[in-house]
Amino acid sequence: MRLERVDVPVYDLSLLRGIWEVRVKKHRQREKKEQERIENSSLASLAGQQYRSSVCCCAFYLLFCCCVCVYDVVYPSDTEQQDQRDDSEQNKLVFRLSGERWTDFPRELQWMTYLREWHVSGTRIRQLPACLASFTQLTVLDIPKNAIAELPPEIGKLTALRGVNISYNRLLRVPPELGNCEDLQRLELTGNHLSELPFELSSLKQLVHLDIAENRFVSIPICALRMSSLQLLDLSNNRLTDLPQDMDRLEQLVTLFLHKNNLLYLPQCLTNISTLKVLVVSGDELNCIPTKLCHDPDIKFIRLYDNPRKRQDKKEEDKSKRRWREQKEEEVKDSGEKEFMEAYISSLKDRGETEQTAY
C-alpha cells in the first residue's frame, strides 16, 4: 500500500495575535485623530460661539431691561427724544390724588420715595402719612382743599422743599420744624385757622412768597418781618388792627395785600420800602394814609370798599364817588395797572369772594 505525502501548513499563534493587535491599535489611532479633527473643525467652534453668544445676548437683554426700567422711573431723559418724553417722565416723578372718596393715602406710596412732587386736593384726608420723612427728594408739597388738621414735625426733614401749599385745610398751628427747610421759596397757608406762626420760621431766608390770608391773625407774625427775601406778603381777610413800625425791614417787598382787615391807619415806614409796587387795603375804616403812598407814581395804591360808610352824608358820599371815578379813569389809562386789577379780581373770584371795588 502506497502512502501519499500531505503538506499541512503550521502557523505560530503568537504571530497572528501580534498582527491583530497592530490592526486594533491603528484603528484606535485613526478614531482618535478623527475625533481631534472634528473637535478642531470650524463647525464645532461656530456652534460653541453661537451658544456663548446667545447666553451673552440673554444676559445683556435682562440687564438692559433693568436699566431702562430704573432710568424711566427715576431720572429724566437726556436723549434726542427728550421733548416727546418730558411729560410722561415727569409724571412718573409726580404723585397726584384727588376726590372725596380718599380718606387716607394709598399704602403703595411708602415705596415711592423717589417722588419729587405731591399734588393732593379735594380729598377727606386728615393727616399726612407716617412715611413722610422718607421723601427726601420732594421739592413740591401741594395739598390744598383737604381736611388736614396738623402737620407732623417730620416735615422738617424734607430739606429739598421749594414750595408748600396747604391752603384751605384745618390747620391750627404750624410746626417749628418747618423752619429747617431753609431752601423754601413759596409758602401758602390761606384759609386755615392760624393765629400765629412759630418764630423758627425766621430762618426761611429764601422765602419770596408768603400767603397767610383768611386766617385769624391779629398782628403780623414776627417771623414774617425777618424773612429778608420776601417779595409778596398776603395778609388779607384777617383781624389786623395795626401794622408794626418796623415794616420797612422787608427791604425787597414788592406786593402787600392788607384788604379785609380792621386797619385805621398805615404807618409811615411803608414809604421807606423802595421796592414796594402794589399795596391793596380796605378803605372803609382807613382814615390815615401817608401822602407818599397816594401820590407816588411807582406805587399802585388800591383801596377796596365793601360798603359805603354809613356816617357820611350824601354830599360827601357823592364827592367821594366822583373822586373814585376820576381816579378810576386815570388808572384805566395805565394798562399795566388794569391788567393787574383784572388778574387780582379774578383771584378773588377763585377764592369765592365777592367785593364791590372803588379806587
UniProtKB/TrEMBL annotation:
Swiss-Prot/TrEMBL keywords: Leucine-rich repeat, Repeat
Record-linked PROSITE patterns: LRR
SUPFAM superfamilies recorded: L domain-like (SSF52058)
Gene3D superfamilies in the record: Ribonuclease Inhibitor
GO cellular component: a single term: cytoplasm
InterPro entries: Leu-rich_rpt (IPR001611), Leu-rich_rpt_typical-subtyp (IPR003591), LRR_dom_sf (IPR032675), LRR_domain-containing (IPR050216)
Keyword Transcription regulation tagged: no
Start and end residues of each stretch annotated as Disordered: 310-337
SMART domains: LRR_TYP
Keyword presence, Hydrolase: no
Stated name of the protein: Leucine rich repeat containing 2
Source taxonomy: Eukaryota, Metazoa, Chordata, Craniata, Vertebrata
